[in-house]
């Protein structure tokens, strides 16, 4: 981490109403956060989304440098004292799945180690007051997820979240706790032992600065990171107005898969689950295979490290158009326009061929005309 660059990136995050999206555009355009503070109004206006008012806010921010310096030095001191690390949206170690969401946080503070393989992750969330059914289902799903080497992400709240972290660690797999406060603050306090377990065997992470206390308004912001860091979100048990429903909304906005365990129709604790299934927002799951089948395009490198074993045999059975498209597809979603551009086939020919490949279970179509190799 280049802490000089981080200093000025930190300054940008302290400017009210600037936001992650504009900061990202500014830094991508001018490369160095420090340069941004020496630009003229007209230069700032070159960046998409930076209008007159925003330019003036950035220019006037120089007056607050002393306050920013004090806050920055306090944060660095607190990080040193608590072994806290930092990554930014422009760093190589920034979580890969999160980087793809629209309003990815520019700065993340964490305790532990960020590992590239942790992109194979499922978020598992649920009520703070689970039933015996919820606890039992949580244990079964988490153990089965972990048996495949897939990590879990949750919010370290009481109830299901806490159980997710504990079952994951007991399975010998890493887990991420995303907090709605600074990573050096344990909340809820009764989860101190869970917090210590995760520090030892996983990652505690937040976009809130060290020292920030938990407040109700923080948790929706936290929930978007829980869903954003994963390939899909599993809802174990939730009421119709539970926090997990907010996480599901974020997952939907982020074009992520949502999975829901069906619950007792007479239980308020499962009303949210059943509603998600009824509306078609979430896929009904009764076992981990239901999840891995939907995410096979993303999990294939993990679940089948020898994925090339059948590649030649598969290609031999394809016609010339199928082979042409199959060769350009990847395990990351590719839009139909990109497929059309790379293959130089017409859109209609691409769609017909993709449908044929889908029937052969070699391709999966995602919302928004995106396609991935299975």
Describe the structure.
- The strands form two sheets. The protein has a nine-stranded mixed sheet, with helices on both faces. Strands 10-12-11 form a three-stranded antiparallel sheet.
- It is 48% helix and 12% strand.
- The chain folds into three domains: 79 residues, DNA polymerase, domain 1 (Orthogonal Bundle); 183 residues, Rossmann fold; 68 residues, Orthogonal Bundle (Arc Repressor Mutant, subunit A), CATH 1.10.10.
- The protein is globular and about 65 Å long.
- By secondary structure, it is of the alpha/beta class.
- Strand 5, helix 10 and strand 6 form a beta-alpha-beta unit.
- The two termini are 36 Å apart.
State the CATH topology of the largest domain.
Answer: Rossmann fold
CATH architectural type of the largest domain: 3-Layer(aba) Sandwich
What is the overall silhouette? globular
> Strand order across the biggest sheet?
1-2-6-5-4-3-7-8-9
Number of strand segments: 12
Number of helices: 19
Q: Biggest sheet, in brief?
A: 9 strands, mixed
Helix content: 40-55%
* CATH class term of the largest domain: Alpha Beta
Q: What's the overall average pLDDT, rounded?
A: 91
> What is the SS-derived class?
alpha/beta
* Strand fraction: 5-15%
Number of domains: 3
Give the helix/strand layout.
Layout: H1 3-13, H2 19-30, H3 33-36, H4 41-44, H5 52-60, H6 65-82, E1 85-88, H7 96-99, E2 107-111, E3 121-125, H8 132-147, E4 151-154, H9 160-170, E5 175-178, H10 192-201, E6 203-206, H11 218-228, E7 232-235, H12 243-253, E8 257-260, H13 271-279, E9 283-284, H14 288-294, H15 296-303, H16 311-316, H17 320-328, E10 334-335, H18 336-343, H19 347-359, E11 363-366, E12 370-373
Parallel strand pairs: 3-4, 3-7, 4-5, 5-6, 7-8, 8-9
Antiparallel strand pairs: 1-2, 2-6, 10-12, 11-12
